[in-house]
Amino acid sequence: MFTAERVADAKDLIRSDTGDWEVVIGMEVHAQVVSQSKLFSGAATGFGAEPNSQVSLIDAGMPGMLPVVNEVCVEQAVRTGLGLNARINPVSRFDRKHYFYVDLPQGYQISQYEHPIVGEGEISIEPEGGQVIVVGIERLHLEQDAGKSIHDLSPDETYVDLNRSGVALMEIVSKPDLRSPGEASAYMEKLRAILRALGTCDGDMEKGNLRADVNVSVRRPGGELGTRCEIKNVNSMRFIRQAVNHEARRQISIIEAGGIVGQETRLFDANRGETRSMRSKEEAHDYRYFPDPDLLPLKLEQSFVDKIRAGLPELPDARKARFIRDYGIRAYDADVLTVDRGVGDYFEVLAKGRDAKIAANWMIGDLFGALNRAGLDFSDSPVSAGALGALLDRIADNTISGKIAKTVFDKMFRSGGTADEIIGREGLKQVTDTAAIEKLVDDAIAAHPQQAQNVKNNPKILGFFVGQVMKASQGKANPQAVNRVLRDRLEL
Amino acid sequence: MTDLTQLTLEAALEGMAAGDFTSGEITEAHIRACERGRDLNAFITATFEQALEQAKASDARRASVKESGGEAGKLEGAPLGVKDLFCTEGIKTTAASRILGNFTPPYESTVTANMKAEGMIMLGKLNMDEFAMGSSSETSAYGSVVNPWKKHNRLVPGGSSGGSAAAVAADMCLGATATDTGGSIRQPAGFTGTVGIKPTYGRCSRWGIIAFASSLDQAGAIAKTVKDSAILLDSMAGYDPKDSTSLNVDNGNWVDACETSVKGLRIGIPKEYTVDAMPTEIQSLWDQGIEWMKDAGVGIVPVSLPHTKYALPAYYIIAPAEASSNLARYDGMRYGARVEGENLIDTYERTRAYGFGAEVQRRIMIGTYVLSAGYYDAYYLHAQKVRTRISEDFRNAWEVCDALLTPTCPGAPFEIGRQLNDPVTMYLNDIFTVTASLAGLPGISVPAGLDQDGLPLGLQIIGRALDEDTVFACAGALEQAADFTAKPEKWWL
Hints:
The complex is a heterodimer of chains A (492) and B (493). Chain A is α+β, with helices and mostly antiparallel strands and 492 residues long. Chain A has helices spanning 71-83, 181-198, 237-256, 302-310, 316-327, 331-337, 341-351, 356-374, 385-396, 402-415, 419-426, 434-447, 449-454, 461-472, 479-489; strands at residues 22-32, 91-92, 95-98, 108-111, 121-125, 133-144, 148-150, 159-161, 168-174, 210-219, 229-234, 264-269, 274-280, 290-291, 298-299. Chain A starts with 21 loop residues before the first strand and ends with a helix. Chain B has one domain (4-267, 401-482): Amidase signature (AS) enzymes (Alpha-Beta Complex). In chain B, helix 2 (23-36) packs antiparallel against helix 3 (48-68), helix 5 (162-169) runs parallel beside helix 6 and helix 10 (311-326) packs across helix 12. Chain B has 493 residues and is α/β, with parallel strands linked by helices. Classes of the chains: A alpha+beta (492), B alpha/beta (493). Chains A and B meet through loops of A and helix 10 and helix 11 of B.
């Protein structure tokens, strides 16, 4: 069914005494759909509600209850399909997937097995230190999430929270086009960026709103495909890389020892950084899929799809290209600034009418650094784009130096207030008064006569004097003015 | 004073409208009949006290409507029975199964809610085959229903809506709700000398009806006359956005249709419905029916439905497949019966082994088997293809005729216990009804005669999808010609 033609970059091959190995990876990503209510019921979907407070009679599998598909979820799936450059299937179908478990009230999950709502598509990814790779999308389908079993509240009982039961998920299946741990996580990053830009999934991996099942096999470079193992529920970028790495090496060592890799489902143990067996192919469930007779085939009008297409937001790739073209910033910076819709929007406000490169540097260096240290999400930034912009304006009009600006920014970040308030209150306004600077320069030269003599032979000493004068001014002297006066006085 | 339980629904509604008697009076009369008919085991849960209160409220409502010159509900004040497959708010609902335990739904099925809105008085919840699986009402966890018609020994009333059929035939209620998956309305109607209407699939909302086989299940009514069945169906049917398979179409003018002339209509006689070992008296009743329809001015056309012989096998794949899935939710975890085991799997096994009867277990196993990997294509997909062919057969027939006339059942009611351990013979009871179920078509059974033992036999009219008007018209003509007035002797009093 699958072919995997591309051979990994030489740097991504796994070297071994018996020769090189190549890892082949395909991903099945579950993304929780952003919607007010569940896929087939009117119950709410908010995170963190009281257990079993968002459960309708349908979600609880009560007798005689019937599902009705939520059009918003269908719209979101179509929107995502369009964002993945994929074919939208005019007719798709819901099937029942059966298994017994306490957190599956109906005894089956409603999913799309044979006829998914979205067919083949592709996205391009740019793994670190590699080239652009096109990754094929096999399909996207809609399905219900199960409830949550809680085993650790009591030693001998399991508690069940059905709030998640029936919440809409999109399962996005890639083709086996990935060839290294880095490519796997770059794919996930890209997918998350696209979902966020579309507003169809919040991409929050910590809350489990985006999670990956990673299919891993190994082969000789370009050779025949090996047997794959599926690693379930890997929920961070780092874990994806670790899991692939560990699993590839595990499979290689089995083959090199003369063994055969068995097809199985494995779990990733984040604490130990390894995968371990969950169930073999023989133990796999027979899910007894069949079309759900409570639901009619899902038929999409072309006008419905066209309307969604017309309303699509700009996607990360397009925005990145535009940032490079229109703002003249580096590709790397453009990448960072387009991962999240909010970040890109912030940048566009900040860069408007200002030096875009400086704006990018301030965001990526100072703002991201401060948020990181404070453990805050970007959306919780205490400094708005407008406020940061006003600070950059004071650098541009020489009110303060770039260095003082860092101090002002720290104060804005920690305790609020505008740049102008802080500059005024703390007396940080740059000294551009030539007489005052001349006084400081003269004092510095007088204090260091030896250096003043040597400066003609060693122009680097000029920097020493700049430093002295700046220090004496507590950083407030305009550096350009200090330079000019020093050169004048030292006759350089 | 006349015995109010002898009235038809139509006459009762007229009587109450004319002020001849009140809902309270007719309800009380029926409660007495129910109490004296306990031996028939038609009810699982009686709700007599609530019924009396509802009747009181109904009489008050009728009075105030009269004062304001408004119109009373379509069922205002009529004491009726509800098959125990319909969820009823605050009233125990069992599906005649142990697995539901003392389940009391906090919600009301759309169909019964519609009927309550039209003024129904509910006398109670009627017995049936467990989860509507059966053709004799013997698989109930609450014991067999007994047919009011009797030979020497006690007979089955048919099934699965046997409680509904028995209660109507015994004058314990003016009419009753029922459900049909493969014949569960028409066959018991045929066995009890009552009228049973199964409308087009999608006419009645399935919301709140405990599911057996979702693509086949359809609610309908069992009544004393064709017109009564039309009155009932009209109060039950209608679009419901809560059921994705509900049809967004208006009800026809069914009550009037019952008296519409059938002159000029063409009635098809499917040759495949002549089956081996069919009693000659059923063949002669059918022939008699053809003559009656001719006399009414109908053209008789021979038709062929070549895939009929595959209908029952296909049904016994599709219905159990859906049932095995629909019944997965009865796991003892959230409601209903539960038998604790050593671990989770053991608890599931013990609960379901205890909770489900033999026939339900058999169908869950058949259904699980036909959906299993490796068998799905050979069984389930194949059966679906047969189903498509059967629908095509009917479509071809509609090119040359407007409705079909067939017997309802291949035999007369049989003794309790006789077929219970012979599932294949039991399944053959539905041989004439199951095709219309697979094709989603409306069908009605009309009592047409008695066999040599004095037991009732029915004839069936099948119509085009959504053409209940024609079905009621033909049934009305048949009823008039047959002039079936026989009543079971009330041996249970």
